Amino acid sequence: MTDLAHIRNFAIIAHIDHGKSTLADRLIQVCGGLTTRELREQVLDSMDIERERGITIKAQTVRLAYTAKNGETYQINLMDTPGHVDFSYEVSRSLAACEGALLIVDASQGVEAQTLANAYLAIDAGLEIIPVLNKIDLPAAEPDRVRREIEEVIGIDASDAISVSAKTGEGIAEVLEALIHRLPPPKGEADQPLRALLIDSWYDTYLGVVTLLRVDEGVLQKGMKIRLMATNARYDVDEVGVFTPKKTPVASLGPGEIGYLTCGIKHVADTQIGDTVTEDRRRAEKPLPGFRPSLPVVFCGLFPVDAAAFEDLRESLQKLALNDSSFVFEAETSAALGFGFRCGFLGLLHLEIVQERLSREFDLDLIATAPSVIYKVHMTDGSMVEMHNPADMPDPVKIEGMEEPWIRATILVPAEYLGAILTLCEDRRGEQIDLTWAGDRAMAQYRLPLNEVVYDFYDRLKSASRGYASFDYQIEDYRPGNLVKLSIMVNGEPVDALAMIVPRNKAEGRGRALCERLKELIPRQLFKIAIQAAIGGKVVARETLSALRKDVTAKCYGGDISRKRKLLEAQKRGKKRMRQFGQVEIPQSAFLEALKLNDS
Amino acid sequence: MAVRAEPLALYLHWPFCRFKCPYCDFNVHIRAAVDEARWVRAFAAAMTRAAEELPGRALGSIYFGGGTPSLMAPETLGAILDAAFATWPADAPVEVTLEANPGPAEAARFAGFRAAGVTRLSLGVQALDDDALRFLGRDHDRAQAIRAIEAGQQAFEQVSFDLIYARPGQEPEAWRRELREALSLARDHLSLYQLTIERGTAFAAQVRRKAWSPPPEDTAAAQFEIAQEETAAAGLPAYEISNHAREGARSRHNFVYWRYGDYLGLGPGAHGRFIPAGDAAGVRVATVARRKPEAWLEAVEAGGIGEEERVTLSATERAEECLMLGLRLAEGVPEARLRAASGQGFDAALDPAGLARLRDGGFVTFQDGVLAATPEGRQRLDAVLGALLA
Fold first, then answer.
1. Predicted ipTM?
2. Most confidently modeled of A260-264, A288-292, B274-278?
């Protein structure tokens, strides 16, 4: 155990690509945590996707020993946090384990939406913030402008921001000194009953679940019987340790210290981020504040393109969930797409990451239905149901009203693209809260229904700004919405996978667009096909795909016979992937394509 | 067995052409010189050996296809025919068809071919329009085509010629005019083929690089419909998807394919379907000969019949082929034929829900044990078969 005065706990917060991981690597290297040979590029982000996309999904810590200029050696704990709003609760717990934060801003880019969101989270958590201007070695670096931006946009004093280049190492020494002198040490009594904050956990093939925590009060020791206060589960501590960044067992962790424990927990889902770990025999009276279970907010159906891959998908989802307790799934059957799973995510990025991991790590070809949010449906009998699958929409006559989640979005965009961005927000039922300027960039704050954002808002935002706009959001509240279920019918039969909840005044346009697209995508058949969009029983758009007029092989002699038969057999096999709608069979691929192009 | 009592159809492939047409994906080779005597010996030897599997069968028809079999000397053709008749007896007059190009060189030999035993001429006219003939890569023009038709009609009992429609830029009404002219020239048989872009052809490469596009489905459909109307009005209605004839002038040889009878294919790349003698189960085999002319010759000269592949067809495959071919004919498929070919009846071979939908939609009829595609159904036969087969 280290005395409190010689401990510093800090988080690194930044927008994607502003150099957070490079800076962390540099700090580890300077403190001798790893030799250069061992220093893989960006050690902290261990998952491939994290490294490629520069996103941290899991919180990770490193304990470093730093000998300061005053000759004393300090234990500094570096906390790498998930940098995205989807994980804002997880970020808030990571921040709660620290006394300070390095706010990293790219000196050539300036403040971005995520910088802002994370800085506010740190400010809310009462952290001491040290602004760091990174990448000052770049010719495009404008430290003075960015310093002003930090003051104007975020509203914190940036006069003593440290200029660094994580790449060249310039300014790293100043950062380490600032950590010692500008951040407060942790507080906490070692003789109190144990209270430790559960920051994160992950599954390790050899050890089972590894739990990352920060001790607030008391001492955590190997062999201790502990209790998780939210779940009330008891465990025996097998091992206590720290990351240097190598996993290193220690005898105990005292107040202010950050480390891990293993105790035979089988599933990550049994550990809840933000829970309090206490000693079973000598329990703390109250848990640490701020705990809440993390709940999915965005849902979609995931279906294997090849129906035979259903079991593979189930297995892969189970494996993913081993390490990601915020991701939930249950089996679902769709008339149009076959067997699949309804999955819940913390947000859009989370959804994207899970989908990408499924295709990349598990080699699955998947199709996702349009993402949905959770609607609160108030029934005429006074009850309320939460609904995230349009298929579960109750009979409209029994619905008194519906509510949908709204977000507060922050968008930073260069002036020349502002017009396009404002138009996009207005189109998506946005309500402007604020519009301010920082140099030649505008910061727009909007209230937007989450349902308008889950489709392709982010893609639109990027294309309307040539990639320069940055965007972040937080869920604010539920508000009543005039919402309806838009159904797509083929020959009078609903295509469940294409159903969606939309604002009434947009239903017709959306329906028409989908009908037109399906008309393009469905191959002509022997019978004409009616493609309709309906709200309740009322058809709002209709397209007719005329019947096939000619489809016959001109010649069929000697050698053509085998070839033609093989084509016919391929056609027969393809029938298995067809879905019957009245007189016609429609290839699943048409629906898959329609979903891919959704809402364009 | 009933099938074996039927006359045998013999297909002989002459794989040589003077040049390759851009739409053609047949087994065609260009050679500076062809040792025709050697080919006669090879065909004769192949026939003798093939006859061991097909003993005691009577020949019903012989078809010289290609390639351009009209490039061979009439004497060569005569010698091959002699060998065929020496191998299999013929109870009745045999239909002997020769495919020919309408060039002047061939036309000059029509009398010789007639004398050698050819009864039916099938001319690759393809178009009656000089621009279209150039596009199709042919080396004859319209005037030569017309002269060849007339010369053929003088020399042979039966003459058919081919036209290709749904050419790029061809308007339906222009096709109607061309077809009417063709009908005024035709005596009793016409084959009208929609231009099909086959894989591996020059046209396929041109279409892929978007040099031009085949007409859209609706245009091709209109042209197909025009072909039905005009040929019916002229007394040569469609008896098969692409074949039109006066009653009694239908190609006997091709009927063997479509009625799923036995045919032996000899020559490079030729396909055959027959029930070998000595096969107690009476199961039909599908054969393919070696494609390269020299390879086929060498195989035959080494004591074989040049076969490269022989597959015994499963009951399902036989049922599929029987239906797929038989439904091309206006007459349809009697259940007895399907049963003889595959051991299955319609109930096993067809998807009952599909059949019901197709009947309701007017695409097929099912009467007195005969399943037939209606004109509407034949025009969409590929889709119909997809829906029909179990």
1. 0.88
2. A260-264
